[in-house]
Amino acid sequence: MSFSYFDVQSIFAETEREQKGDFTECLETYETTGFSHRWIQPPVACYFVTTMDKKGNVNCTPVSMGTAFQSAPPNMRWCYAFAMNNERDGRKNLDETGECVISYYPYDLLRESEIVGLPLPKGISEIDVAGLTPLPSKKVKPCGIAECVSNLEAKVIDSICVDGSTVYIFEIVEVSVRSEYIERDKVTPHEPGLGAAGLLFEVSIKGEPPRLNYMRLDTQIHPTPDDIGCDARWIGTFEEWMDSEQRRGKITADVEREILKLNEQWKANPDPEVNRGVKEQLTKHLINIVRA
Description:
By secondary structure, the chain is α+β, with helices and mostly antiparallel strands. The strands form three sheets. Strands 3-2-6-9-10-5-4 form a seven-stranded antiparallel beta sheet. It has a four-stranded antiparallel beta sheet with strand order 1-11-12-13, with no helix packed on it. It contains nine helices and 13 strands. Helix 7 packs antiparallel against helix 8 (about 255-270) and helix 8 (about 255-270) crosses helix 9 (about 275-290).
C-alpha cells in the first residue's frame, strides 16, 4: 500500500502567487500541480444562499462548502456553518444584515444553478434572472426559493475571518419543506429525507470550457450547460460573460455595449428605488440572454 504526499501549503502559496485560481479560489488540478483539491473537499450537496443588503437588493449564490450540526444542551438548536469568499456580494450582505436562507436544490435546477452562479452585477437578483420563484420567509427578510426541496431560514450567531474568507455559524430558525417530499419520505424505507430528493453534489470543474460537474447519488456525472456564461473560464468577469454571449450570437455588439453601459450606471448607484429603471432594463437583458 503506497501513498503520495503533497505539501498543500506550498501548492496553494504558488497558486496564489501565480494567480492560477479562478474567482480567487484555489481550484487545483492535476494539470497545474499534480494534485487536486478534491482530495481535501469531497462531493458535498450544493445549495443556494440568499441574502439581502440594507437597501433591499437580493443576492443568491450557490455554495458547496458547509454542513449542518446540532448544538448540545442546555441550549439545543440546529446550526449551520459555511465559508464564503470575502469578495462575494453574499458575504458583504451577511455582514450588513446577518440573515440568509439556505435552499437545497435538486437535479431539476441544474441549469438554474449555473445561472445563479454567473457574475451578475451587484444588486441584480439572480433569482429573477434565473426565473426562480421567491418563497416568503417567516422569520428572516431574505426569501427562500419555491423550486428548492427545503429552505432553511438562518441568522448569524458567530463568524471568523480566515485569510480571504469568512466562516459563518448560523442558527436555523425556520424550515420549509415541499409537501410532496414530506409525504414521500413518510412511506420511503429508512426515511432518507434530503438523500432521496435528487440533490446535486459538486465533484469537479473540468472541460472545455471549464464547467462545474455534479454527481447524484446514482453516481452519474451531470455537467452544467456550456451554452451560457464565459466561454473560456469557469466564472470570468461580467464583461467576459457578455463578450462570450455576443460571440455565441445571443446579443449583437450594440446590445452588448448597451448592457455594459447599464452595468456602469447601476454600479454607480445600486439603489433599487432611485435607480429602478436601470436595474429593470439590465435585469431584462440578462433574462433574455440566459433564456435564449
